[in-house]
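Dear H.,

Thanks for agreeing to be a second pair of eyes. The structure we're designing against is below in token form, covering all 209 positions.
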């Protein structure tokens, strides 16, 4: 009985720590700095700041992708990631460079802005074409989408996530391994960024280096 209780306690601690990590990965650097002004003890605030700054990747999109892809269980599907940033959005050359440094050659990367599509049909057509595209080396694929003025584009982003998730799940069922990154730019004066989060999506604030 004692052993089982100890096991239950360990499981609860593990779940609590994982939940804290998931919540911590969603906050902005400014929020972490302000922890010292909250009712948290100085020790706990310092521990959260250390976990955020030294164990999670919020300073570089390249480092974040490398970490998440390397940690991925090979029995799982690809990562589905939403990144928020106050930095300027990526140029196409920067996106392909980051993809290359993470291990994706240009021919398996699709990079686009959500605002480049006039209709939902155009967006769906692009996704289907990329997700179903066969490459000679049968490599994993990387879809990188970005959206400026995220605070004014909440409906567009939510709609895009729904569509991506639907097409993504169908593609994964065929055996394709696809990593999806949705980059959302927010201004520092922006209020709360509200958007329905799909189950598959992880959220990370990132300041590009």
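And this is the sequence the design step returned. I haven't edited it by hand at all.
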């Amino acid at each position: 009985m004692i052993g089982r209780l100890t096991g239950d306690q360990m499981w609860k601690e593990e779940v609590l720590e994982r939940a804290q990590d998931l919540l911590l990965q969603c906050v902005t650097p400014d929020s972490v700095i302000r922890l010292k002004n909250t009712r948290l003890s100085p020790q706990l605030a310092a521990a959260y700041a250390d976990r955020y700054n030294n164990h999670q990747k919020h300073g570089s999109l390249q480092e974040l992708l490398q970490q998440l892809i390397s940690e991925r269980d090979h029995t799982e599907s690809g990562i589905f990631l939403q990144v928020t940033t106050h930095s300027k959005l990526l140029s196409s050359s920067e996106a392909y460079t980051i993809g290359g440094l993470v291990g994706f050659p240009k021919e398996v990367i699709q990079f686009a802005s959500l605002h480049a599509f006039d209709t939902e049909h155009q967006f769906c057509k692009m996704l289907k074409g990329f997700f179903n595209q066969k490459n000679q080396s049968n490599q994993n694929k990387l879809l990188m989408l970005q959206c400026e003025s995220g605070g004014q584009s909440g409906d567009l982003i939510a709609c895009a996530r729904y569509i991506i998730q639907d097409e993504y799940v169908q593609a994964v069922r065929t055996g394709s391994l696809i990593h999806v990154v949705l980059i959302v730019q927010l201004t520092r004066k922006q209020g709360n960024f509200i958007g329905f989060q799909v189950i598959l999506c992880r959220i990370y604030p990132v300041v590009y280096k």
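Two observations from my side: Strands lie at 80-85, 109-113, 141-147, 178-185, 202-205. Residues 194-200 have pLDDT under 50 and may be disordered.

Warmly,
E.
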